[in-house]
Amino acid sequence: MTYLAMPLFHGNAVMANLAMATRAGAAVAMRRRFSASGFLPDVRRYGVTYFNYVGRALAYILATPERPDDAANPLRAAFGTEASARDMAEFGRRFGTSIIEGYGSSEGVISINKVPGTPADALGVPPEGVDVAVHDPETGRECPRARFGDGGGLLNGHEAIGEIVRRDAAAFEGYYANPEAGARRLRGGWYWSGDLGYRDAEGYFYFAGRDADWLRVDSENFAAAPVERILSRFPGTVMCAVYAVPDPRTGDQVMAALELDGPFDPAAFTAFLRAQPDLGGKWAPVFVRLTARMPLTATNKVDKAGLRRGRWECADPVWWSPSRDMTFVPLTGEARAALRERFAEFGRERLLTPQTGFAGRSAARRPIPARHRDGPGRTVVTMKTLTADALAAAGRYMLLNARLIDRLRYERLIRGGSPDRVLAVLRAYQNADGGFGNALEPDLRGAGSQPEPVEVALWTLDELDAFDDPMVLRACDYLMTITTADGGVPFVTPSVRETPRAPWWETPDDPPGHLIPTASIAGLLHKHKIVHPWLGPATEFTWAEIEKTTELQAYSARAIVNFLQRVPDRDRAHEQFVRLREAILATVALDPDTPGEAHFPLDFAPEPGELPLFPEEILQRHLDALIDQQTSEGGWEPNFPMWTPIVRHEWGGFLTVERLKTLKAYGRLA
């Protein structure tokens, strides 16, 4: 009986489990999603003798409480990739089974396997007669063999680490319909794997990460994996990850994320670092992120793209060594602001832009790793994009279906049209009391002002970077007139009963303040540093509501995320983001084909944000799906109920602009 809890889109699940079981005529026990706590009960329940894994699965199983009878199970063997030597040994001891690791490229070109005598933390050697080596991807020269110290630490990683390359004729012709990707792999008649590694004097290969794992500190290049191996020795470490974050002057700084089984002791960590003989002079982390659970991709690999995007402005607590002497203090909001000023001082603030901001801001693709920013080693990611023809179809859809304001927003977004034309139309929706109505929110058809259309108007002003327009303060004046005793504004006021509206817009006679739309409005005003008497009480109301919240529905969750992304008290925002993260995620549909009124990751992250909710892999999957969801008419249709035909056209135009904004923010427009 085999056990399969890895995602079926990954070759490990197919080749290392399903294919083997099919060949042997074995039964397969399949779990929808990997669960560390459910692993051993499943093994015993189904009589599992073999399982496959990838990434950090063993580490999470080992993090569950050890019991005296753990070895009382039918397991005989497991096969996988990327477990540490320590985890493999501990897993074998604790569960009484054999762990087999192998290395192979998905293209089937390179295979490296353990043989008798292979060091515990080495991959092994390639088959006899297959010419595999390690080469510097920039110079093309073969790297020197690795040298180790008395404790086994790598002494010359700066020169020994390079890209694993097959140098003889390989049965690989390229990728289907993707010649650019094939050209990156086949260079000079050799197959370049994209994996970093090094080789010792006896010819054994060692894995050092992907090519995105290069760091460049003070002109020295090194890989993350050797540093991770050192940090994993720190007592209490469940999992660690090392990655590059930008330096204010030049190159990178080292940042580490640690998942610990107890509290972090900064003095003990300092003593540990100073005692490591194999810790290179540039390898010590400047920033340490403490995470309750390491962010992983669907294949149980560390989501380093998300870690890099969050930097030191993530939701988790961060400690740092401002003098780079391996002594650590908490990174406060004041220190974060000072760091941003340092980047501006040296003209490198652009490096921080892709991780911050939401609607209307330019959010770029993630930066190319430091070692590969220029020259022959440059890495280019090929992604599905919305074609020029599809974009033209969207323009025709807008012309035939959308309201004037949304057509002008489209012109501004795609063709660089004037923001003044959008502002002129938006003013027509504002009433004498400063509020907005007149069906700016398509489900509210009345002329009178309501809180929700104010939020819609402010998002539009944010998109145009026009918060200096007088409409903003007039809207705040209106909000003052409907603010409840607790400082919030209602979801909807009783005057809605007198107007045509969607049937779900109902309210009691004396409605209380509500997170929707108070939280989002307050967040936008904070983002643009608006000073108005309404904002202080509204902010305190929002904090009070958030801090007493334990369960959420999707619209409230989105409002909370909007607020936490923008409020100036970053430490408090990070704390609540960490506390509520699981509750927020529980409202999200991760399957892009989920029917009905579902809320998807891109609804919460329409642009890359400071507080990352989702692994990069999930966002990319949903961006692909978003492109595929364009209708034959050229627009994007709402997935929520329509109560009258006209609102379908109005919502369709509005949502088409929103979807195009998201695709543009993530670099998915051709």
UniProtKB/TrEMBL annotation:
Biological process (GO), any one: long-chain fatty acid import into cell
InterPro entries membership: AMP-bd_C, AMP-bd_C_sf, AMP-dep_synth/lig_dom, ANL_N_sf, Terpenoid_cyclase/PrenylTrfase
AMP-binding enzyme C-terminal domain residues: 227-301
Gene Ontology MF, one: long-chain fatty acid transmembrane transporter activity
PANTHER family in alphabetical order: FATTY ACID TRANSPORT PROTEIN 3, ISOFORM A (PTHR43107:SF15), LONG-CHAIN FATTY ACID TRANSPORT PROTEIN (PTHR43107)
Signal peptide: none
Top-level taxonomic group: Bacteria
Similarity comment: Belongs to the ATP-dependent AMP-binding enzyme family.
Residue runs in coiled coils: none
Organism annotation: Planobispora takensis
The protein's name in its UniProt record: Acyl-CoA synthetase
Any one cellular-component term (Gene Ontology): plasma membrane
Keywords for this protein: ATP-binding, Ligase, Nucleotide-binding
Residue ranges annotated for the AMP-dependent synthetase/ligase domain, each copy included: 4-176
